[in-house]
């Protein structure tokens, strides 16, 4: 790692370290009662404990399942509709006004409707995740597909590519950078939405753990799911980053 | 003719959706899913009910305050991060950790500390809006051409003056994109924080009605909140277009076909 | 004001009695565009031209004269608003491997390596992977990029990218090469090297080449025939036969008075608007 890289890393860890120190100081010096603000040591210990506890693991599994299911559906739908809208004027005309109307809507307002339609289980949450993650992916795909260099398509056609294969062989790969940017945003949104949905109504999942702990006024147990979702988000984002580096290894740095 | 049709398209889309809803609910014949017509009819009842109006006004007030403070803090911070590598390195990892945590999820913790009142909800909105605005201000400031700043320095402008008079206007298109995201998030955070910490507000009305089985009110509120979202977006876009008429069309992380 | 294309040779000798049949025929082609300002732009006006097989033909003209458009019409990427282009008697309806393009912007597939790019055409035509790979390796070596097979386009210089583009097109054995100012994005030194390399490669099997350029010197150096076009709306001003022996060597030609005369004559034929690039 370069000298600059090391300085950056240290500089970046600094605020986190400072906050933890501040956190500990507030308790040690009595500014905050431990019932409201448990000390960092206690919180991290509890996290370690919970991660080994099967019922907590089940909650993580439930959250992850909904997250992945929702995200995956959003990716499949978003990419296919986005590409279709970019290459077909008919699809474009149909999709465009719908997106203009639906995109600015806070989808979480639809959550009660999903609950009524699909019950209080996994489905309503997965659908909410799809509804929220879909649009950034769709729009990024549409954008990426619509600015594919004309000459790339012409080169492929001249090389003998049948026109209907162009979507798969040229448009999709060329739009990949844009698509992956949209996926990144979609992933973060998925994390956020699934957690929120579980907080509002659920019987399991990380969001539910938070609300349950709040009802019992267990401050320590409230921090655990929050930190967990943050870590999950970081890990997933990191994984997506690796995937992106691999898939886009030929593309010039944007 | 074609242009007129294009402009009407979103309205047609709305009507189409409502129609689909109407038909769908009739087909489902489920008591808990009212038809579009029934829901629309419930709207005036809400809008004329004093209690509801107060709730909605509270919501909007909290949203506005949270937004203003967030923007006021985030834009300078983002600009600074964009121009100073040290500042960026300092804040970046911290922000990356906070990013995936839904700010509305902090509600219970914040409520524990600050009680159930306005402050917690406004704080959460503040946090929710800050991140995208910081990020976009950061990106916008980073992208400002060095040569513009050199010209400014040659003219004798101080670092602070350059930040305000060169970086800020040049980064404005990107900043406004961030504000647009922030606006969307403000509305979402507002509604969700109210769904979680029920005490007042639009989210509160929604879930109260759900608990009491007043399903047409539920859907009516959904329409109202949805309409608010669309109106804010349209209004913001109009304002943004005016402010940055000079810039190239923005397409970064698009939020909508504009 | 219609300028009739002059198809006669520059020489005083009588034309040979047996002319090779034209492989490409362009008949009364016109091209009209709708610009954003909703105005009609006539890019090409009544172009008629025959391209003979195995000829290296340059289309020379100022910027905006529609020469690229003409190339795209022959390539089948653009359909003419009037008139038609035919190849071997059959109308050109769309792009195909018989007419291989090489673009100024290179248009390489960024997600594929050099090898992947060059193998693309043959794979499309159903050639098995092993065979296609072997052919690609040979071509890559021929254009002088041996050792770079696994590089991505982003890692290559402009000149190298254009070599890959050429190899990619040659890989699917087109009968006609359509080159759209291929060296326009390169610096002068790389340009001259690639011009030489192009001629060397072309000498091997002498495909028909249609070469668009705005450089008089490039046109004269490379071609058998130079088709001079006017500014928009583009018409053919004159067709000039370049009667210089092959293989052509730049250092010899630069001192050859016939070469110099061609350049001077052609430049004189363009008005002094400065649109056409003068040799430095």
Output the strand order for the largest sheet of chain C: 6-7-8-3-9-10
Mean pLDDT reading of chain A: 87
User: Which overall shape of chain A is indicated by the principal axes computed on the Cα atoms?
Assistant: globular
Q: What is the CATH topology assignment of the domain at 22-94 and 205-270 in chain C?
A: Rossmann fold
Written account of the structure:
The complex is a heterotrimer of chains A (254), B (258) and C (280). In chain A, 80% of the residues lie in helices and 0% in strands. Chain A has helices at residues 3-28, 40-52, 54-87, 89-102, 111-118, 122-146, 150-158, 166-200, 206-215, 219-247. Chain B is mainly α and 258 residues long. In chain B, α7 (146-154) crosses α8. Mean pLDDT of chain B is 81; it is low at 250-258. Chain C has a domain at 22-94 and 205-270: Rossmann fold. Helix content of chain C is 32%, strand content 23%. Chains in contact: A-B, A-C. The interface between A and B is large, with 66 and 61 residues.
Short description:
The complex is a heterotrimer of chains A (254), B (258) and C (280). Chain B is mostly helical and 258 residues long.
Question: Secondary structure elements and their pairing?
Answer:
The complex is a heterotrimer of chains A (about 250), B (about 260) and C (about 280).
Chain A: H1 3-28, H2 40-52, H3 54-87, H4 89-102, H5 111-118, H6 122-146, H7 150-158, H8 166-200, H9 206-215, H10 219-247
Helix pairs in contact in A: 2-10, 3-4, 3-6, 3-8, 3-9, 5-6, 6-8, 8-9, 8-10, 9-10
Chain B: H1 2-28, H2 36-48, H3 50-83, H4 85-98, H5 107-114, H6 118-142, H7 146-154, H8 159-196, H9 202-211, H10 215-243
Chain C: E1 22-34, E2 40-52, E3 56-60, H1 67-75, E4 82-87, E5 90-91, E6 99-102, H2 114-124, H3 129-142, H4 158-171, E7 176-180, H5 188-205, E8 208-213, H6 216-222, E9 225-229, E10 236-241, H7 250-253, H8 257-269
Helix pairs in contact in C: 2-3, 2-4, 3-4, 6-8
